[in-house]
Amino acid sequence: MNNEFKFTINSIAFDENYQPSDSTRITTNFANLARGESRQENLRNALTMINNQFNSLANWDNPKADRYSVELEIISVDMDIDHEGNGQSFPTIEILKTNIVDHKTKKRIEGIVGNNFSSYVRDYDFSVLLLEHNKDKPGFSIPENFGDLHGKLFKCFVNSDAYKQNFTKLPVICLSVSDNKTYHQTENHHPILGVEYLPNESSLTEQYFKKMGLKVRYFMPPNSVAPLTFYFFGDLLNDYSNLELISTISTMETFQKIYRPEIYNANSAAGKCYKPDLKNRDHSLTQIVYDREERSQLAIKQGKLAEENFIKPYQSILEQWSANYAL
Fold first, then answer.
1. Average pLDDT value for residue range 266-272
2. CA dist list (Å): 314 to 1, 305, 321
3. At a CB cut-off of 8 Å and minimum separation 6, what does 71 contact?
C-alpha cells in the first residue's frame, strides 16, 4: 500500500468580505465570526484589533503605530482518501497563514503558517470517541492509541510535497492555556514572546499534540494579561523572525480576547502563579458578537460528521495506512 496520502491545498483571504466555504468547520474561530447579522462588523473589528496589536509589539521605527498591517489566508487541506484515483477526498485540516504588509518599505513579508488549528478528526477524537469511551464509567480513561491516526495524518501533511511547495517554514499553532492547570512564571524572558511560564502538569491536549510531532511552550507577550500556548517543531525562539512571531501573537491573542475574554481580556495580568479562570468576572468584552455555547455544541455534531463520512467508511484503509506509516 502506498505510504503517502496526497493533499490538496486551497487558500482564501480572511478579510471583511470573507464567506465560509461549505467544507469549513463552523466552530472554527474565523468562520464563527463570519456568521449572523454582525458578520462584517465582527470581521472588521477583529482585523483592526490584530493590526493594532501587531503595531504595538512591532514598535521600533514605528512612531505612529501604523507601519504594518496583517493579511490572513485560510488554508484548507483536503486529503485524497483512496489510492484508486476515484477522487474521494475529505477536508482534513484548516489553518491560518499570516502575511505582513510593511507600508513604509511597500513590502509584503511572509508570516507563519499554522496559528489556528482546525480538524474534523480531532473533533471526532475528543467529542465522540473520548465521550463514548468514558460513558457510564466510574473513572476517566483514554482509549488505546488515542490520537495516533490524527498525529500521523498531520505529520504526513507537514512532510508532504504539497506542504513543502506552499510553505517555507514549519507550522506554529497558538492556543489558549488550560483552565485546569496552574502556570508558574520563570526567569526566562524573550523580547517578543515575553515571559515564559511552566505548567504544573501535562494535559491530554499536550499529549495529543505531541503525537502530531509538536513540542509546547507557554509565553505571556508584552502588554498581555495571560500566557499563550505555542505548539511547534524545532526551535520556537530562533527559527522565526520577530515580525513572524508578532504576526502569530497579534492574530491569535485577538481571537482569544474574543472567545475567552475572562482570561485574555481580564482587567489584571497573570502573576507569578497563575490559574486561568473562565468564571472570572473582572474582564472586559470586545465589540464582537459570539455564541460560545453554540460553538461547543457544534463540536459534537462535527465530530459525528467526521465519524460518518471519514472514520467509518474508510476504517480499513485508515487502519492499514496508520499501521504501516512511519517517518
1. 96
2. 14, 13, 11
3. 13, 15, 98, 99, 100, 101, 108
